[in-house]
Amino acid sequence: MENPKVQEILEKQLLTVAKAVEEKLDEEIAAIDRLDDDDLEALRERRLQQMKKMAEKRNRWISLGHGDYSEIQAEKDFFSVVKASDRVVCHFYRENWPCKVMDKHMSILAKKHIETRFVKIHAEKSPFLAERLKIVVLPTLALIKNAKVDDYVVGFDELGGTDEFSTEELEERLAKAQVIFLEGESSVKSGAETRRSVRQGTNPDSSDSE
């Protein structure tokens, strides 16, 4: 049986919290009630301007190739891509199974996070970049902000050490590096699609991780 005094203390604490929440709600309702027509119109105008700016930004992103997961065909094009967008995730790959796993996740995230450019480049056909950026293990994701490589995701070590990691795990890692936004108007939610493993339905053709 619980101590009556402990129970009484808990009840008082709960009442205090409930009262504080109620007072906060009352303050917010009162603030809304105090708004006159001019205030409401100013709020609407501010919101419209925010929506307009976001629409312009999204259109610019799409014009730069955001929203699609595409391949950079030549090394020289890498530099123009990273200079054009504030945030770029570049997958250095080769034709192996681990890189195909990464491709699946990158394709999903490219559509969801149009605030970031998602691209891939063949590491073996890009020796200058691979050496300059010290790319050894494949797949490697170069996380680029403001035209500078800020971080790397090398292989699957940070994703559970397995090719069965979920898109959500990769998404959280990229968000931690601040190369994508987890929430907000700049990203498009795709529900459970981001949580599934991409291994199902595809047969590995190589276990090479380099």
Automatic annotation (TrEMBL):
It comes from the Eukaryota. It holds the Pfam family Thioredoxin. Gene3D superfamilies: Glutaredoxin (3.40.30.10). InterPro entries: Thioredoxin-like_sf (IPR036249), Thioredoxin_domain (IPR013766). Keywords: Coiled coil. Residues 74-156 form the Thioredoxin domain. SUPFAM superfamilies: Thioredoxin-like. Residues 189-210 are annotated as: Disordered. Residues 18-60 form a coiled coil. CDD domains: Phd_like_TxnDC9 (cd02989). Residues 199-210 have a biased composition (Polar residues). The keyword Coiled coil applies. This is Thioredoxin domain-containing protein. It comes from Citrus clementina (Clementine).
